[in-house]
C-alpha cells in the first residue's frame, strides 16, 4: 500500500514524500516585493516537505492584493527568491512558486501610479480588506479589455519564466479562493459576453489559456494548477460545479501537467473523485476537514483518493511536519497570532526536533 511517506516522481522532479506544504499568504515581503532573510529561514526550515508550494506571488504590479506580498516581475524580486530556493535545495527540498493574481481582491492604496484592481467584470466584492493601515471597503474593479486579458496571460508566462530563473522547481497557478482565475470561472464575477465569458466554455477559457501559456514557457512538467470548486471565499458564487470543473480538467488533461491541486471547499467528495478519475497526472488534495488538515488526514493517500496531501496551518506550527506525522506526534498547536508580518515565524519558541514541546 502506498503511504504519505513514500517517495513520488512528480513529472521528473523527485519528491522524498507525498506531504506538501500548502500555499499560505504570509505578508512578509520587504521593499519592492522582495523576500527577506525571515522568508529564507521560513521555507528552509520546512524543506523536509515532499513539496513546498509558496505563498501567493503576484505576477505583475496590478496583481497584488494584500500588503507586503512578494512578486516575481522584477530583477530584484528574482534575485531575492534565489536565496530562498538555494536554501531549500541545500536542505534537500523541492519548491514550486505559486503565481497568484488577486484580481478584484485588492485596493488602490496597495498599488502604485494610480492603478486600480482589475477583474473579469466590474463587480465589486462584498466585504473589506486590511491594507496595512486599517480596513477598507473593497472597490469596484476595472473590467479587463480583450487586449489586457491577453497581456495578463503573458504576464503569467513571464513570471513563470522568472520563477525558473530564480531556481524554483516549477510553478503552481492559483485558480482558487476567489482570485483572478477563479473570477473568470465564476458566473457571479464574470458577466462578460465575449470570448472570455458568457457560456461555461468561455468562462473556463482564461484558466485554460493561462495554463497553456505557462506550460509552453517552462514546460508542462513544471506547471501545476490549484482549484477550489464551490469555494465561496472572496464573495464567489458557483451554483453549478460539475460541468464547469470537469470541462476545465478535460481541457488541461492532454497537456501533461505536473499536478492538479484540489482544495475541497464543499462537501462534494464525489466531485473530487470524479476529477481524480479524469486527471491522469499527479493529484494533490487539500481535504475538507472540520478544522485545519489534521495529523490523521494523510489517510487520503492510503485510500488512493490522492497522490499527495497538502497541509497548511499544521505545517506553520511544525516545520518538521513529515517526521512528526510519521512518529505520530507530538504536534505544536498552530497559533494564528504568529502567522503574519515581518517579525512572525509562525510558531512560538519552536525548538527544532525537540519532541518535548507540542
Which properties best describe this structure?
two-stranded antiparallel sheet; 11 helices; 16% strand; 358 residues; alpha/beta
Question: What characterizes the major β-sheet?
Answer: 8 strands, parallel, barrel
- What is the arithmetic mean of pLDDT? 93
Tell me the strand percentage band: 15-25%
- Helical content stands at 25-40%
Q: What order do the SSEs take from the amino end to the carboxyl end, as H and E?
A: EEEHEHEEEEEHEHHHEHEHEHEHH
Q: Cα distance, first to last residue?
A: 30 Å
The main sheet orders its strands as 3-4-5-10-11-12-13-14
Report on the structure:
30% of the residues lie in helices and 16% in strands. Helix 7 runs parallel beside helix 8. An eight-stranded parallel barrel has the order 3-4-5-10-11-12-13-14. The chain is globular, with a radius of gyration of 19 Å. With 358 residues, it is α/β, with parallel strands linked by helices. The chain is built from eleven helices and 14 strands.
Please sum up the structure shown.
By secondary structure, the chain is α/β, with parallel strands linked by helices. Helix content is 30%, strand content 16%.
Amino acid at each position: 500500500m502506498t503511504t504519505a511517506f513514500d517517495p513520488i516522481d512528480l513529472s521528473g522532479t523527485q519528491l522524498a514524500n507525498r506531504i506538501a506544504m500548502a500555499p499560505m499568504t504570509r505578508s512578509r515581503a520587504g521593499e519592492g516585493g522582495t523576500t527577506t532573510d525571515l522568508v529564507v529561514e521560513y521555507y528552509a526550515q520546512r524543506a523536509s516537505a515532499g513539496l513546498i508550494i509558496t505563498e501567493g506571488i503576484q505576477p505583475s504590479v496590478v496583481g497584488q492584493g494584500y500588503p507586503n506580498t512578494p512578486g516575481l516581475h522584477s530583477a530584484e524580486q528574482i534575485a531575492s527568491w534565489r536565496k530562498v530556493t538555494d536554501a531549500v535545495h541545500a536542505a534537500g527540498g523541492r519548491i514550486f512558486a505559486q503565481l497568484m493574481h488577486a484580481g478584484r481582491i485588492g485596493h488602490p492604496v496597495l498599488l502604485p501610479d494610480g492603478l486600480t484592481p482589475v477583474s473579469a467584470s466590474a463587480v465589486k466584492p462584498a466585504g473589506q480588506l486590511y491594507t496595512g493601515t486599517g480596513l477598507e471597503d473593497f472597490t469596484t474593479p476595472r473590467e479587463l479589455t480583450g487586449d489586457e486579458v491577453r497581456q495578463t496571460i503573458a504576464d503569467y508566462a513571464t513570471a513563470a519564466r522568472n520563477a525558473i530563473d530564480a531556481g524554483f522547481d516549477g510553478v503552481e497557478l492559483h485558480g482558487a479562493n476567489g482570485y483572478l482565475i477563479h473570477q473568470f470561472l465564476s458566473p457571479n464575477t464574470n458577466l462578460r459576453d465575449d470570448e472570455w465569458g458568457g457560456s461555461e466554455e468561455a468562462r473556463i477559457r482564461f484558466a485554460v489559456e493561462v495554463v497553456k501559456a505557462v506550460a509552453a514557457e517552462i514546460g508542462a512538467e513544471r506547471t501545476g494548477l490549484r482549484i477550489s470548486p464551490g469555494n465561496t471565499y472572496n464573495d464567489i458564487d458557483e451554483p453549478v460545479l460539475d460541468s464547469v470543473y470537469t470541462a476545465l480538467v478535460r481541457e488541461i488533461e492532454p497537456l501533461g501537467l505536473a499536478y492538479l491541486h484540489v482544495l475541497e471547499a464543499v462537501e462534494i467528495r464525489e466531485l473530487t473523485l470524479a476529477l481524480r478519475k479524469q486527471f491522469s497526472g499527479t493529484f494533490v488534495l487539500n481535504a475538507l476537514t472540520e478544522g485545519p488538515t489534521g495529523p490523521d488526514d494523510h489517510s487520503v493517500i492510503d485510500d488512493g483518493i490522492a497522490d499527495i496531501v497538502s497541509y497548511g496551518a499544521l505545517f506553520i506550527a511544525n516545520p518538521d511536519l513529515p517526521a512528526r506525522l510519521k512518529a505520530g506526534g507530538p504536534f505544536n498547536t498552530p497559533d494564528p497570532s504568529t502567522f503574519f508580518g515581518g517579525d512572525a515565524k509562525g510558531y512560538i519558541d519552536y525548538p527544532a526536533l525537540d519532541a518535548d514541546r507540542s
